[in-house]
Amino acid sequence: MLVYMLHYAAVTPPQQSLPLIRRQFPLRRYYYVDQLVTWPKAQQYCRERYTDLATFESLDDLNRLKPDISYTWAWIGLWDDPKAWKSEMGNKSNSWRWSATGETSKTGYQSWATGDPKFRYSAEKCALMAKAGYWYSGTELNVKRHVFISTSETWSSAQRYCRKLHTDLAMIENEAENSEVKQLIPAGANVWIGLYREPWIWSDKSPSRFQIWAAHEPNFNGDQHCVCKNTAHQWGDEKCDSVKVFICEQVVKTSNTVKMMMTSIKDLTDPAVNAQVLQQNRDLRSTTPSSCTPTKKSTMSQQTTAALLLFGLCLGYCSQDPPRRYFYVNQSLTWTKAQQYCREHHTDLARFENMDDINMLETDISYSLAWIGLWDDPENWKTKMGNGPNSWKWSATGETSKTGYQTWSPNNPDFSSGKETCVILFDNRKWGDVQCSDSQSFICYNVKEQNVKQFFYISTKKSWSSAQTYCRENYFDLAMIENQKENDEVAGLMPSGVYSWIGLYREPWFWSDGSRSLFRHWTSSGPTNSGGSRHCGAENDLHEWEDEDCTTSHVFICYQEVTKAHLVKMRVVTGADLTDPDISARLLQQLGAKLASQGWTDAKVRWQNTPQKEGQ
Fold first, then answer.
1. Among 11-20, 279-288, 510-519, whose mean pLDDT is lowest?
2. Which distant-in-sequence residues (6+ apart) come within 8 Å of 168 by Cβ?
C-alpha cells in the first residue's frame, strides 16, 4: 500500500532547539515482593511501603537485582497508560504529539477511524489519514497551507523532507483543517500526517528512555499496557490485570561518615573552632558538583590526612562508564571504511549508552544521515548459525549452536521488515525466520536419561514468547534441534499444512567496539531492512537512528574514550621521611588500594612533586 505525506507552510515556523543536558539519576534499592497481584495493585503496594514500582535507568541498575530469585515474570514500573492516548489526545508523556511542536494537542481535536488507534504489534506510533478524513495509527497559530506530496516515504523520511523544504508534516487542529487536507488526498490513498507518540512511561515519572525488551517483545495483543521482566532481566508487555510477583524500588538518600585525623594548634573542643572546621569541610565538598568534575581548587587551613579519604570517596560515588568525546568526520565513506578511519584516528565508530550521550552531540551540524557504530553483521546469521552476539541462539541454553546444524528454507533467514528474529519449522521440514509476535503452534521438549530429547507438539497458537513460557512451565523449553534426525522427529509430530515455533531466536544489532549496551534510539518506523541489505546503523539530524545499506557512503561520527587525570594537593603530617622512595611508594600503594576498593580498578596514581615556596 502506498503511503503519502502532507505538509504545511506556516507564516512563522516554530523554533526548536536541542539543549545539552547532563542528568544524574537517583540511587535506588530494589525489593522483590513474592505476592501475585495485578499491576495496579503492585503499584499501590510499592507506593505505600517504598517509593514506587521499579524503575531502571541502566544495565547497572539491572545488575543490582538479586540473581537467585525464582519467578517467571515480575512486574516493573513501565507501562503505557491507555487513557493518555487511546480514547483522547491526552497530555502525558505517552500521548499523541504533533511533529511541528513536539507537544501534545492544544485543541484536543481528533478524527480516528473506528478501532483506531490500536498500537498493533507495539509498532504503530505514527498517524495516517485516509481520503474519508479518518485517522489511522501506522508504523512509522498561523495560517496554514497544506501541500500533497505523492512520493512514498517512511514517516521519519517524510518528516525530514517537510522540515527541509517547508515547515513540517501536517498539524490538524480542527474539523476545517481536516476537511482541507482530506480534499488533497487521491482516492484510495493513505497519507502521513504529523501525529506521533512515544509509548511507555515509568510509574515514578522518571524521564529515562532506557529499555531492554526481550528479542520478541513488546508484541501487544491489543490490551497489553503493562511491563514485566523475566529472570534474564529482559522485559515483555502483558495485560495489566494479570497477576504476578513484582519489584519495588526505594530511592536512597545517601549520607557518609568520614573519619579524619587532624593536627592543629587550635582547641578542637571549642565549639567555635568546631564550627569553623565544619564550614571548611562543607566548602571542600561544594567544589565538586554532581558530575564529579572539579571546577575550582580548594584547600583547608588545617593540616589533615583526610584529603586522601575525601577524594577517594568522591571517586567511589561517581564511578561510571568511561567518558567519551564525539567527533563528526565530514568525509563520505562506506560503513566499513568509516569504522577503519575511526579506529585509526580515535577509538571506534560512535557508541551511545543513553540519552545523555546523544545530548553531547553538536546540534548545528548539517547532514541527512551519519554512520554510527551499530550494525547487524550478516556474516553472523545469514549464511551460517554463527557465533557472534547477533547470531542464532537456542532458547534452552541462551547460547549459539554447538553443532552448527541448520536447514533453512530458500531465501531464509532474511530479517524481513527488520523484525523477523524468531524461527518456525515449515511443513516441508525447513526453517524460516518470522516476526515473534505471530501466532503459531509450537514444539516443546523434555530431556530424558542419557540426555535423550522427547518432543511434544502443542496445537494451541501462541506468540513465540508465550510459547516459550508455556514450554518452560510444563516441559523443559521450546524445541532445540541439533541434527537432521531430531529435525525429522519434530517434523513428524506436525499435522500437514501447519507451521510451528522452535526455540531458535536471535538479538540483532550490536556495537562496533564490542560494547553490550542495549540502548536504542530508532526512528518510529525503523529498522526496516528495506531491500534486505540494511545491516548498518546511521543517525539523522534529529539524532534518531535508521538502518542503511553498509555499502552506501555517508559522513560519520567517531568517539574517543577520555582518560581523566586528577591532581590532588595533599599536606601529610607524619614522622616518616616522605622523601624516602620506599615510604612514598607504600603511600601510593595504599591510595591505589583505596581507589580499587571503591570500584576504580583501572586507576593509576603517581606523585607529582612541586617545589615548595619559601617559608612553607
1. 11-20
2. 7, 8, 13, 14, 98, 99, 100, 159, 162, 194
- Give Cα 69 distance to the centre of its chain: 24
Helices 306-317 and 581-597, interaxial angle, to 10°?
Answer: 30
3-state SS string for 171-234: CCCCHHHHHHHHHHCCCCCEEEEEEECCCCEECCCCCCCCCCECCCCCCCCCCCCEEEECCCCC
Instruction: Kindly report, residue by residue over 338-387, the tens digit of the pLDDT.
Output: 999 999 999 999 999 888 888 888 766 778 899 999 999 999 999 899 99
Domains and CATH numbers, the chain: 1-254 (3.10.100.10), 324-376+509-561 (3.10.100.10), 379-505 (no CATH)
| Residue 603, burial from CB neighbour count under 10 angstroms (0-12, 13-18, 19+) | middle
Report the 3 state secondary structure along 280-311.
HHHHHHHCCCCCCCCCCCCCCCCEECHHHHHH
What single-letter amino acid sits at 385?
M
Distances (CA, A) of 487 to 116, 456, 483: 42, 13, 6
Angle at 522 between CA 153 and CA 89, to 5 degrees: 75
Distance (Å, rounded) from C-alpha 516 to C-alpha 375? 13
Write the pLDDT tens digit of every residue in 210-219. 788 876 688 7
Cβ atoms 24, 43 nearer than 8 A: no
Q: Residue 413: what are its φ and ψ, rounded to 5°?
A: -75, 150
- Total H helices, total E strands in the chain: 11, 32
In whole angstroms, what is the distance from residue 549 CA to residue 562 CA? Answer: 31
- Predicted TM-score of the model (pTM): 0.55
The cell numbers describing 471, all together, are 514450554
Eight-state DSSP code of residue 120: G
- For 388, the grid coordinates are 557472534
DSSP symbol at 450:
G
**Cβ 430 vs Cβ 407: under 8 Å:** yes
Question: Which element (helix H / strand E) includes 396?
Answer: none
Report the first-to-last Cα separation within the chain, whole angstroms.
Answer: 82
* Cross-strand partners of 453: 447
DSSP 8-state secondary structure symbol assigned to residue 84? G
> Which pairs with CB-CB distance under 8 Å and at least 24 residues apart come from 482-489?
482/401, 482/402, 482/403, 482/405, 483/403, 483/405, 484/405, 484/407, 486/453, 486/455, 487/405, 487/407, 487/425, 487/429, 488/429, 489/455
Phi/psi for 391 (5° steps) reads -80, 170
pLDDT higher than threshold 70 for residue 197:
yes
> Judging by DSSP bridges, how do beta strands 554-561 and 369-375 pair with one another?
parallel
Cell of 174: 480542527
Give how far Cα 375 sits from Cα of 5, 452, 533, Å: 29, 38, 12
Task: Give 261's pLDDT tier (boundaries 50, 70, 90).
Answer: low
Distance CA 413, CA 432 (A): 6
Give DSSP secondary structure letters for 451-505: G-EEEEEEEEEE-HHHHHHHHHHHSSEE----SHHHHHHHHTTSPTT--EEEEEE
SS3 124: strand
**H or E, element range at 111:** none
d(CA 194, CA 199): 16
Question: What gap in Å lies between CA 420 and CA 399, rounded to an integer?
Answer: 19
- CA dist 268 and 280 (Å) reads 14
